[in-house]
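Recall the central idea of this unit: under ordinary conditions, the amino acid sequence of a chain determines the structure it adopts. In this exercise we apply that idea directly, starting from the sequence alone.
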Amino acid sequence: MLSTSTDDLAVKYSALRDDPSQSPEVREAARIFAKAEFLLRAEDDPETASQKASEAVSLFRELQDPVGVADSLRLHICALAQQEERKEALRVGQEELAVAERSGNRLGRAAMLLSLAEVACYRCGSEKREQAFLWAEEARRVYAQLGDRKMEGHAMLAVASVCMQKGVKAHQRRDFLKATKALREALKQFRCLGSDRAAQLGEARALHGLASVYARLEDFPKALAHSREAVAIWQMLGLQRLEAVELEFLARLQLQTGQLQEGLRSAEESLELIASVARPSACHARQQGQALQVVIKANLMLKKTAEARRVAQTRLEDFRQAGDSASEAAALGALSEVQMAEGNTEEAVRSVDLAINASRDVNSARARQQSKYEANMLAEQSNFQLQAGLFSDALSTAKSSLAIFDALDDCEREQACMWGAIFMAHLGMQDAVSAQSSAKRSLDIYVRLADRMGEATAWIHVCSALTLQGELDDAMNAAMEARDMFASESLLIGEGQALDHLASLSMRRGDMAKSAMFAKRGKAVFQEADCPVQEAFMAWARKGGKKKMGDPFLKKEWYDIKAPSMFSVRNCGKTLITRTQGTKIATEELKGRILEVNLADLNNDEDQASKKIRLCVEEVQGRNCLTDFHGMELTRDKICSMIQKFQSLIEAHVDVKTTDGFTVRMFVIAFTKKRPDQVKTACYAQSAQIRKIRKKMTDIMTAEAGKVPLRELVKKLIPESIGKEIEKQTQGIFPLKNTMVRKVKILKKPKFDITKLMELHGDGGDDAGVEMLRPEGEEAGNTLAAEVAAAAAEE
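Accordingly, the structure predicted from this sequence is:
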């Protein structure tokens, strides 16, 4: 959708044609231009479109209309490129560029630069692609000077097309990133034009380009979002053919991301839209065949083999009755996939042969397209034979396809793919030497093309051939090379496959620990790439790890626990955590960890062993875990020792908010005791007395805790000052003993403040007394001291 597109000027020239105020010559030229663009957009008859565009060029030149001449020349060059006459298109463009430069026609120069860039972008070799990039950048600069936002946007689309083609051929991530930048700039230019129809068409093309680039970068959420936006624009503009093409692309993305039902719906909608197009053509048949293949693929992925066969056979019969050979060939190709899924390899190969024969009758004028289609179908047939285990037949078919690709220009990448198929055939025939030779041929081509992804895949093939020969060390090196290449390009699926090979090789060498390590890493990579099938395939990593377990503490780290300054012992222990691995950071995992320490250890006082303090890790600095108070509880043996018969047990609890924002829940427990001089054995309290005591308890806890910060509350909890206050104030109701705060829970914390935490862990947080020394006054001396002083003076 991005390359050699028309400038969508049919509306403009149709209006000019119907304008009675224009001269008959202008109206005739506009009519011819509109007719040519209509034929070209429909891709029905590019040869006639080229002739019409050439006539329009002549008429506009006679009228001395530079804008009409530039638009018609772009249309003429676009039609030539669509006829696969790219050399002729480049010749015309370069001649007209020279004419525009001599005459100082900046608009004509920009138009020819843009047309040359669009033509040289595809199937013209790597040198022409580099030149196309320069042409497109220069066209963008000239259009920016002219203030033509729409054509500047088209120039940015051409820049993006060149970058995408360079990225596809060499699979360099940086080229795709450049394309993303250009497409975003083009989208910005088109959106600045508002509701103009031509601008909306450009916006949709830019969105489609972004979806394609993000799919190449494996950023599928963004790719899906941009593709859906493009579908909405095509639908709004009423362009059913382009909407169908976008829906087919969206369906492929959805199937690739596991959205099978959504992908099936999109593919079926695309197929119905293409079938409803009023004027069928060769392009229409090709698109219909592609949509049908996606529908079949979706049904097969959903395990609906019978439905897939029904759809393929129904469409095939319809195409045969209509005499549509191109669509018949596409339907036969789709049917072959169904037959292969059913296990009928012979029928699948026969269907591919029929598809090749049907395609030969479509259009003999397009010899290159026919040859490439035949080579692609032979490659698919070879793939079927490989899946069926017919390795000798697959080898013969792959060599036939390779011979066709060798005769075509700019098909080096396809040649490398066929060498890969030949490698697979040799590998299946256990011919390790020939397999290694084929893999290296493929590797040489990818190195020449600077295709990092292809090169990494070829290294995987080399690894497999070396493994078959028993050269495990060299195979490990090849797999590591592939892993590094995939990782450098952020290609997660390829990296996972390389790690799978490394895991298998390590297992064959008897190193089970390393095998489990590679397998677990591969499983994590597939999980990150959102590939559940490969992730499940790597699930054996869990079993592999159990065969030879290492010391789990080798993966652990020790951290020191720092208690708050309200306790005497600051270094109160150590805690263990797994080292940082991937996205799991050790320090972040430590935060929030709850630790329980006995108060006797915190204050170095065995008399306080009846209380347990809970500390929460709030911050990690180096190897130190800075903690804060998180709760307190009496030990079970202390509570059991206080419970006796012939007395009442009274409990109460209350929620209190401290002055520094902590909400705490405090539980208090108390026991009744005998009054002074009481003779009676039992000392039970009445219900009314218990209610009054409980009310007193809650009031005192609220008063004691609600007027101080948390650190001061902790200082009251340690010596049990709250319990003593309760005993004192309830003496008039009923005497109590063993009144203690049984439990304290932190319900809610204020927003974390590192400054307050550091104050809590600072050395100057508490007020400490300092011993003051001063000389003793003379009047304070005693008699003995005076006598001693006098004796010393006499001597």
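The radius of gyration is 42 Å.
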